[in-house]
């Protein structure tokens, strides 16, 4: 009977919890008097997150009242310190385990890039091939690597490295010649399978890593936030898109230049992941989706996140949503699919014309050997890369001169010209100017062969 005198208040009335301050606290009531027990007696109903529970039977309170009522109380009651609050211990947030730097470094071995389908496509299979130096720079920036052997041979690796340089996940993507996904995987799963097939024990780091509840627990490119503390951010879904964004819009060189980051997938646009963007301006580009669902969802979430992260501003442009045909939306196309059809040179900031070279000072001592001094490596930063394959140099001078002579003589049509099924030149004279300039400054560089080919195609078409 005695045990039923003090009970938790019935009903749904909640007060502020003395431990967590949330309005989820239920008081104990003395059923004989109908009054509340002192404020601290009660239970927080956030059982797993707070767990505060002070029970009057557990700290001697009920005994003390009984003695008072029986007249035997000596006035010296002290709540039993050890039984004061029965809290369910918060499950200790187990520290996440990371992927060792050595494991990432293997994916970054320079001679692997020749096998990397994604990277090689950027030189050979896109309409407007990129320069080796730009791709190398972007690869270094994001620490993108290659799977060398096995069933994912030739796949590209996209590491998710956090603010502190911890490697939280390495996504593995297989692409076809048009850089569309044909397979998705994770480096830790590949390594896991490799050992399991051979009945070998997993390495210690992987045993720990497999216990992580969430694998992709930071943004792709997050490590750049500490390197570029002031820059605005462009946020997309997939790492590939962030990589394209950098190649098209340029590298973060000035404080106003964009850093391109990716959340991983459409459901990872969440506070926990985005709180690292505190104080930044964030241009946000969700992938297209049926009826613009993702766009609406992210936009709504962003409003909530902004209110929790003072100084942060998410900017959404619905340009893509408005322009994209319904078929693209159904396919979930993204900004990468649009960019790759454009000439990246038109997107880069106009750089001031290069100054004429300074006169070279006269060298008195004969130079016998020029060596590149190697910079000492920092711990996780700055892996070394070498340029990817170089092809035999060719010379297009004859072709270029012929083209120049041909176009000089002719009157250019003011109207758009259709070059082939998918290319329409809207401004012929501008097209000529930029294409001729490109082939001249990259004479013989096979990656720019499509430019030469387009010029020749134009000549055939106009003929
Ligand atoms: Zn509480």
Automatic annotation (TrEMBL):
Start and end residues of each Zinc beta-ribbon finger putative domain: 4-58
InterPro entries: DUF6371 (IPR045951), DUF6965 (IPR054238), Zinc_ribbon_put (IPR047731)
One Pfam family here: DUF6965
All residue ranges annotated as the DUF6371 domain in the record: 116-288
Domain DUF6965: 399-460
Protein's UniProt name: Uncharacterized protein
Species classification: Bacteria, Pseudomonadati, Bacteroidota, Flavobacteriia, Flavobacteriales
